[in-house]
Amino acid sequence: MSDYGMLDKEEIYSKVLRAGRRTYFFDVRATKAGDYYLTITESKKFTNDDGSYHYKKHKIYLYKEDFTEFREILGEMTNYIIDEKGEEVISERHQKDFKREDEFVTHEAKTLEDTSTESFTDISFDDI
């Protein structure tokens, strides 16, 4: 690829925000004309049943002509959320007694194994 084509993909300035399973990448890049724009990429890690993992990525391209309105709306929305719900995270995942679904299923299966068969009524198929 020529240097001209690489200019579009070149990262000028980057920052990373790690947030649990999500990672946000903020990258300043250059257009072919030499102007700058911002890409914001969300990368989220997913684990497969076999233990392997993969990432899903979503990307936003933000150009200078949209900065002012984007900043205003982002500020308005984040302020609204903080004003309405405060800064504390409200999520069952963040509760002290939160159990992941797979832990819950394992617990329920164990509970069923521990249940005595004496509490069940014998049913004859002739009665049906």
Question: Can you give me a brief rundown of this structure?
Answer:
This protein has 128 residues and is of the alpha+beta class. The protein is built from three helices and four strands, in the order H-E-E-E-E-H-H.
List keywords for this structure.
128 residues, alpha+beta, Nuclear Transport Factor 2, Chain: A, four-stranded antiparallel beta sheet, 3 helices, 32% strand, flat
Strand order of the biggest β-sheet: 1-2-3-4
Major sheet attributes? 4 strands, antiparallel
Name the poorly predicted regions. 4-8, 115-120
CATH class: Alpha Beta
- Total tally of structural domains: 1
The total count of strands amounts to 4
Enumerate how many helices there are, as a single number: 3
Radius of gyration: 26 Å
Give the second-level CATH assignment, the architecture: Roll
pLDDT averaged over residues: 79
Distance between the ends: 76 Å
State the helical fraction: 25-40%
Return the string of H and E elements. Answer: HEEEEHH
Residues in β-strands, percent: 25-35%
Plain-language structure description:
- The chain has 128 residues and is α+β, with helices and mostly antiparallel strands.
- The chain has one domain: Nuclear Transport Factor 2, Chain: A (Roll), CATH 3.10.450.700.
- It is 30% helix and 32% strand.
- It has 3 helices and 4 strands; from the N terminus they run αββββαα.
- The protein has helices at residues 3-7, 67-85, 101-114; strands at 11-19, 22-30, 36-47, 53-63.
- It has a 4-stranded antiparallel beta sheet with strand order 1-2-3-4, with no helix packed on it.
- A hairpin with a 5-residue loop joins strand 3 (36-47) and strand 4.
- The longest helix has 19 residues, at 67-85.
- It is flat.
- The N and C termini lie far apart (76 Å).
- The model is unreliable at 4-8 and 115-120 (pLDDT under 50).
